[in-house]
């Protein structure tokens, strides 16, 4: 049972490039979330999705785009990466009817 | 104002002793949930324990218990019999209210407490 996976685990890119971070879960959880973790800020919500084709903004959505054409996938795209988007990105999922969010292993992104 | 406050940036505890990590929260909702996650140096986020606002009993999961004081808006994590493997960053988080479309399932995190267990 793979659970929730993220790819790539590490990424180095340059300012202005488009980057897509992948998130895949095998549980068929309805809800999926993207967070970023920065020193001094804890985790902050970027976007979330209640089901396929339903997405909404979180606390820090600027510069990011998401899509959810299939329940199991929730990719996060940085359309034009900036240095301020250097961070650790976590994807999480939650079943409908449950309380707990389960996190993927994270993607470390460095924007030069 | 911060919704989740963890006032202890770092804590030290001797192996086999108990330790309490503080968390206070701010919400006007009647229905909410409180969570603790552990993040070891390897980086993954591990769910530890959950407390619902209507739960009358404090939540317990093995060596972890949540000291829930609703009137004081505090949700402290108690780790009994600390082990070296408990050394990690610990995050308190809150899920507020009952919105729609998934908005009620968003988590707001505190900034974390770094726990070091000494042998």
Would you kindly provide a written description of the structure presented here, covering whatever features stand out?
The complex is a heterodimer of chains A (112) and B (119). Helices cover 0% and strands 52% of the residues of chain A. Chain A contains no helices and eleven strands. In chain A, strands 2, 4, 5, 6, 9, 10 and 11 form a seven-stranded mixed β-sheet that branches. Chain A has a four-stranded antiparallel β-sheet with strand order 1-3-8-7, with no helix packed on it. The N and C termini of chain A lie far apart (36 Å). In chain B, strands 2, 5, 6, 10, 11 and 12 form a six-stranded mixed β-sheet that branches. Chain A binds chain B through residues 30-31, 33, 35, 40-45, 48-51, 54, 56, 58, 88, 90, 92, 94, 99-103, 105-106, 108, and chain B through 4, 33, 35, 37, 43-47, 50, 52, 91, 93, 95, 101-103, 105-112.
Instruction: Report the span from N to C terminus of chain B.
Output: 38 Å
User: Can you count the helices of chain B?
Assistant: 0
Helix content of chain B: under 10%
Q: Return Rg of chain A in Å.
A: 13 Å
Strand content range of chain B: over 45%
Percent range for β-strand residues of chain A: over 45%
DSSP helical segment count of chain A: 0
The total count of strands of chain A amounts to 11
What's the story with the biggest beta sheet of chain B? 6 strands, mixed
Write the layout of secondary structure elements.
The complex is a heterodimer of chains A (112) and B (119).
Chain A lengths: L3 E4 L2 E4 L5 E7 L5 E8 L3 E10 L2 E4 L6 E3 L9 E3 L8 E8 L7 E2 L3 E5 L1
Parallel strand pairs in A: 2-11
Antiparallel strand pairs in A: 1-3, 3-8, 4-5, 4-9, 5-6, 7-8, 9-10, 9-11
Chain B lengths: L3 E2 L4 E5 L4 E3 L2 E2 L6 E8 L6 E7 L7 E2 L2 E6 L4 E6 L8 E9 L10 E3 L3 E6 L1
Keywords, please?
heterodimer, A: 112 residues, mainly beta, 7-stranded mixed sheet, 4-stranded antiparallel sheet, 11 strands, 52% strand, B: 119 residues, 12 strands, 50% strand
């Amino acid at each position: 049972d793979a659970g929730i996976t993220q790819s790539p685990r590490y990424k180095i890119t340059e300012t202005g490039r488009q980057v897509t971070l992948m998130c895949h879960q095998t549980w068929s959880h309805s809800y999926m979330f993207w967070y970023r973790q920065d020193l001094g800020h804890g985790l902050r919500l970027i976007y979330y999705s209640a089901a396929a084709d339903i997405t909404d903004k979180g606390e820090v959505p600027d510069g990011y785009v998401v899509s959810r054409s299939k329940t199991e996938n929730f990719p996060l795209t940085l359309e034009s990466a900036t240095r301020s988007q250097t961070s650790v990105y976590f994807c999480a999922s939650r079943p409908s009817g449950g309380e707990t969010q389960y996190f993927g292993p994270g993607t470390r992104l460095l924007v030069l | 104002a911060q919704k989740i406050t963890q006032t202890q940036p770092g804590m030290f505890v001797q192996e086999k002793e108990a330790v309490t990590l503080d968390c206070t929260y701010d919400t006007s909702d009647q229905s909410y949930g409180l969570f603790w996650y552990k993040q070891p140096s390897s980086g993954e986020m591990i769910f530890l324990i959950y407390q619902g606002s209507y739960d009358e009993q404090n939540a317990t999961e093995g060596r972890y218990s949540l000291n829930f004081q609703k009137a004081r808006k505090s949700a402290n994590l108690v780790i009994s019999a600390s082990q070296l493997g408990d050394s990690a960053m610990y995050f308190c988080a809150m899920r507020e209210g009952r919105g729609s479309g998934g908005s009620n399932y968003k988590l707001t995190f505190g900034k974390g407490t770094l726990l070091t267990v000494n042998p």
